[in-house]
Amino acid sequence: xxxxxxxxxxxxxxxxxxxxxxxxxxxxxxxxxxxxxxxxxxxxxxxxxxxxxxxxxxxxxxxxxxxxxxxxxxxxxxxxxxxxxxxxxxxxxxxxxxxxxxxxxxxxxxxxxxxxxxxxxxxxxxxxxxxxxxxxxxxxxxxxxxxxxxxxxxxxxxxxxxxxxxxxxxxxxxxxxxxxxxxxxxxxxxxxxxxxxxxxxxxxxxxxxxxxxxxxxxxxxxxxxx
Amino acid sequence: xxxxxxxxxxxxxxxxxxxxxxxxxxxxxxxxxxxxxxxxxxxxxxxxxxxxxxxxxxxxxxxxxxxxxxxxxxxxxxxxxxxxxxxxxxxxxxxxxxxxxxxxxxxxxxxxxxxxxxxxxxxxxxxxxxxxxxxxxxxxxxxxxxxxxxxxxxxxxxxxxxxxxxxxxxxxxxxxxxxxxxxxxxxxxxxxxxxxxxxxxxxxxxxxxxxxxxxxxxxxxxxxxxxxxxxxxxxxxxxxxxxxxxxxxxxxxxxxxxxxxxxxxxxxxxxxxxxxxxxxxxxxxxxxxxxxxxxxxxxxxxxxxxxxxxxxxxxxxxxxxxxxxxxxxxxxxxx
Lengths: 226, 335
Hints:
The structure holds 2 protein chains of 2 kinds.
Chain A: H1 2-8, H2 16-51, H3 60-74, H4 78-84, H5 86-93, H6 99-123, H7 127-135, H8 140-151, H9 153-174, H10 182-191, H11 196-224
Helix pairs in contact in A: 2-3, 2-6, 2-9, 2-10, 3-6, 5-6, 6-9, 7-8, 9-11, 10-11
Chain B: E1 2-13, E2 16-28, E3 33-37, H1 44-51, E4 59-64, E5 67-68, H2 74-81, E6 84-87, H3 99-104, H4 114-127, H5 143-155, E7 161-165, H6 173-190, E8 193-198, H7 201-207, E9 210-215, E10 218-224, H8 225-230, H9 235-242, H10 249-255, E11 268-273, H11 283-291, E12 294-305, E13 308-318, H12 321-334
Parallel strand pairs in B: 3-8, 3-9, 6-7, 7-8
Antiparallel strand pairs in B: 1-2, 1-4, 4-5, 9-10, 11-13, 12-13
Helix pairs in contact in B: 4-5, 5-6, 11-12
Keywords (chain A): Cell membrane, Membrane, Transmembrane, Transmembrane helix, Transport
Pfam family, one (chain A): BPD_transp_1
Transmembrane segments (chain A): 27-51, 72-93, 156-177, 198-217
């Protein structure tokens, strides 16, 4: 194994501890930013669906505000968002560099994306199901939980997979504010020092991570679909 | 039971106004099977959605069992809706839930224990004749079976009214018949009032006792099914009735000069239709004997609507002209 590594990846051999540290940073960022983004995104996505025209809690004002805000943040390239949010991050976290501090911009980058994904996933749901629930005397809150979230579960699992994969992509950019992570690792050694084997190794690690999430997502989709 | 008064529903689509329902007044009695027929776009679906306020009318009142639904708070309305079951053209079963859980859906959170829900669901599945599918998912069922499950679900809270929105339109004729028989059975056994929206006159003929014909958002004709069938007032109603009877085929035969309808000089083609519920006299026999004429029956179409025959025959009458005239006069007198 060591011979294999030294023959094909001469620069990786002494970087495994650093690599594992980077992997942990990536997982940490994905986990924390993921939890908050999924929670906020689900909430906003539901607000969009129920408030839009013909929704169960139709409200043009709320819809317009949330829709505009979501679209505003979605249209900012993440690398620029990082720079713009430095002050806010410092205010919330105390500092603006490091793993913990990348989480704030990651949440801002992912939440609007996920909200949009949830909105479109829930809009796919047969309107007849909501109508049936209404005809049975369900309250809006019950319809959200018993119809939208339950019957939309497989669509939600699908868009969650997409979002988590895109979140991994964003963590690579967060290296720009000194967050660490595999992306940062690959840029620092693979690009800046021309140690291409390090870059390839990082790519392989990310591909495996993405594949793993994809597989997990597909399993959930399969189990929730009938 | 259900009183719709001056119902109007206007949809505003950017700058265009669509008058889906216009000034509709209907009274549906207890234990009625009330049919509302019309072409698609006639406003019948909107009208039936007004009954449980899935669609709130622009103006008018909806009185169900004595209370005006348009005046209820949203909480009171939800309670009222539990007593108004509804089934749909596309069944609208929850695809991620088993048949058992679909039927249990309206019972959950209503204060019943798990065991009570279980018993009630089994009772309902038994009632609609689909007990063996309890653990299946809706996607594994045929259209007719899905509609049975939907009926069970709609009946879960013991409603007094069942609204059927094109409930048989996605089903083949045989399955349609079996679903209609089930609805009839429910009407007989639990006395539930049924409102049926359809574009098929055969559905009305099969089970309804009263019917309203809708066109362009208005009710143009309304009454007992038998009287509407035997003496339709409006052209549209006649057209709908034609779709279920072949008595009108005579017109096609005449147009194409079919050999079936070629008549010799002095002969007449007549169409005789039932107009009264209690027609029991053997009129054809009587007139052939009494006036010494012959009737050659080309074809006949007689159906039973509300336990009385509707329809009649088309025949070629031959004999002496004077006798024929007298015979026809005699028939007219009998009307």
